[in-house]
Amino acid sequence: MELFETLKLLADETRFKIIQLLLTQDLCVGALANRLGITDAAVSQHLQILRKGGLLKGEKRGYWTHYAVERTALDQVAEQLKAYANSPAIRQSNCQKLSVRRSEIKGREKTMCKCNCEQPDKLKETPEKCSTEQIKECHGDQEPHPCEGKKQ
């Protein structure tokens, strides 16, 4: 399963709590419902989602099915997140000027400062016409304006 999809599964508070509980011990639907303070039906729905996502496995014991976490699946998620965390950051100190179609500004194309913060909408004009407030909103307290000397 894709990392994004797995994280969406875990983003639900109840499902996250289910995973937390099942990391400590195997539990059946009734025990989970009791500990979470929700209905058996609600727990069953969450368990079904987690099983389809490959995060849980069930084992029949007598009349009940006890659920456990698929630890290898969690390990894979952790490794993927660790890889993201350890990837090198690409830092650029200057804005990149791009031609941006701004249909809301009289339907004409304008060259605007499109900086790393991706907020060109904060700059209503071309870089040379930016007010101090607009520059600060887009670039923070950076002095001088990152596009200085790069005006067309």
Question: Mind explaining what this structure looks like?
Answer:
With 152 residues, the chain is α+β, with helices and mostly antiparallel strands. It has two domains: 3-86, Arc Repressor Mutant, subunit A (Orthogonal Bundle), CATH 1.10.10; 96-139, no CATH class. The protein is built from six helices and five strands; from the N terminus they run H-H-E-H-H-E-E-H-E-E-H. The protein has helices at residues 3-11, 13-24, 29-36, 40-52, 71-86, 132-139, and strands at residues 27-28, 56-61, 64-69, 96-101, 109-114. It has a three-stranded antiparallel sheet with strand order 1-3-2. It has a two-stranded antiparallel sheet with strand order 4-5. Strand 2 and strand 3 form a beta hairpin. The protein starts with a helix and ends in a 13-residue tail after the last helix.
Give a quick summary of the entry.
It is built from six helices and five strands; from the N terminus they run H-H-E-H-H-E-E-H-E-E-H. The protein is of the alpha+beta class.
User: In oligomeric terms, what are we looking at?
Assistant: single chain
How many β-strand stretches?
Answer: 5
Overall shape: it is elongated
Strand order of the largest sheet: 1-3-2
Uncertain stretches of 5 or more adjacent residues: 93-112
Number of helices: 6
* Element-by-element helix/strand order: HHEHHEEHEEH
Radius of gyration from CA coordinates: 26 Å
Largest sheet: 3 strands, antiparallel
The CATH superfamily of the largest domain bears the name Winged helix-like DNA-binding domain superfamily/Winged helix DNA-binding domain
Helix vs. strand class: alpha+beta
What proportion strand?
15-25%
Shape-level CATH architecture of the largest domain: Orthogonal Bundle
Gap between N and C termini: 47 Å
